[in-house]
Amino acid sequence: MDLFLDTPLSNAVFDLLRQLNDEIEGKLAETDQAGLVKVYIFGGCAVHMYTNARGSNDLDVEVEAAEILDVHSLVVELDTVYFTDPVEGDMHLDLDDTFQIGLTPVVFPDYKERAIPLNEGAQKLHIYLVSPSDIAISKLSRCATDDIKDIVEMYRKGRFTLDEFKEAAQEALDYTATPGSLQQNIDHVIITLENV
Question: What is the pTM of this model?
Answer without folding.
Answer: 0.92
